Amino acid sequence: MPIGREKSVILDQQDKKVREQLSKIKHKIMVMSGKGGVGKSTIAVNIAVGLSLQDFMVGLLDVDLHGPSVPKMLGARDLKLTRRPDGRLGAIKYSPNLKFLSIEPLLPSEDSAIIWRGPIKISAIKQFIGDIDWGELDYLIIDAPPGTGDEPLTVAKTIPDAYALIVTTPQEVSLIDVKKSIRFCQKVKMRILGLVENMSGFICPHCGKPLDLFKRGGGQKLAEEMGIRFLGKIPVDPRIVDTGDRGKPIVGAYPESVTAQAFEDLIRNIVSATEEMVREVLEEKFMRIACPVSTPQKFEPNIEKMELFALYDIENSKILVKDVVKKPDDQDLIDFLKEQVATHIVLHNPPKELADKLSANQIRVLIAETPEANPDNLIQEYLQSKVQ
């Protein structure tokens, strides 16, 4: 077998394993931030532990390959991967309801440096998902490094139905970078679950009362301006540092504290938001409609000639974003649509076999009555028909 073809077969097998594993996970949430130092990993760890304490089956995946901190924050640096009877490796079991995986347990020592470039990092993250037996999960929480580089981009491309949870602090310098994270999500077509404001106010270590020592409220104001959910505020609490260093997340170590209660409110809002986002797709309040085009303003009715697609993100019958994307020549139409997280496709007189296959993959088919049409007009007509 030629080397190029052999490599392609291996990559196809890896992608298949990734899809099989992801099909067992109900909700995937990537915790991200525009800049470092905002407490993103602390948020991710406490969300994962908090969800597990509410009887959800949870996975916590640390894709910060250069600076993994999850094992330390969980107090689980001595735990190792387990091998299943079928030979596959299982994620590390932290508690009956929580498993995690990080690059750190795979390194020769805790202070080993990872000096990898993009392709190796992309492959590693895919292996963390496809080659590891995570089992059936309600939530997979993914702790990504700050910024919009290889790791969050790989998650967005590998897990197209993942949601983004963006962490910020109240300061303006952090809020500026949050806007970049929002633009990143829009560009890669990742739906935003909501925004969390960390280090919001200060909890006095003596009296336990919140003080406005630092700014607060900036994250909530920005969420309102950008039209995204505001999920909650987590105050500055000296015990967060202590519990993180001791490997005892604050939601479990001090469950009655103001900070733990803030995390409980945040987790409650996350559960509610994920359920709401699923309903929005089922009720067509959110749609991503793919429309084949020969030019950005001309519909392409011939299935054999479908190369360009206009993608419309629609929420509450309003077009939020329109993008034109080229389908790779060697990619199957349905695989392309799933990668783009399309919920609908516009076709003219599609073969029944194709229509049935699309429906089986939860992609709804909208029929264009005439082969010559303006794609924008097709979408507007469909939206108007839904309102009437």
TrEMBL record:
ATP binds at G34, K35, G36, G37, V38, G39, K40, S41. Keywords: ATP-binding, Hydrolase, Iron, Iron-sulfur, Metal-binding, Nucleotide-binding. CDD domains: Mrp_NBP35. The keyword Ubl conjugation does not apply. One of its GO terms (biological process) is iron-sulfur cluster assembly. PROSITE patterns: MRP. One of its GO terms (molecular function) is ATP hydrolysis activity. InterPro entries: DiNase_FeMo-co_biosyn_sf (IPR036105), Mrp-like_CS (IPR000808), Mrp/NBP35_ATP-bd (IPR019591), P-loop_NTPase (IPR027417), YlxH/NBP35 (IPR033756). Coiled coil: none annotated. One of its GO terms (cellular component) is cytosol. SUPFAM superfamilies: Nitrogenase accessory factor-like (SSF53146), P-loop containing nucleoside triphosphate hydrolases (SSF52540). Homodimer. Belongs to the Mrp/NBP35 ATP-binding proteins family. Binds and transfers iron-sulfur (Fe-S) clusters to target apoproteins. Can hydrolyze ATP. HAMAP family: Mrp_NBP35. This is Iron-sulfur cluster carrier protein. It comes from Thermodesulfovibrio obliviosus. The lineage of its organism: Bacteria, Pseudomonadati, Nitrospirota, Thermodesulfovibrionia, Thermodesulfovibrionales.
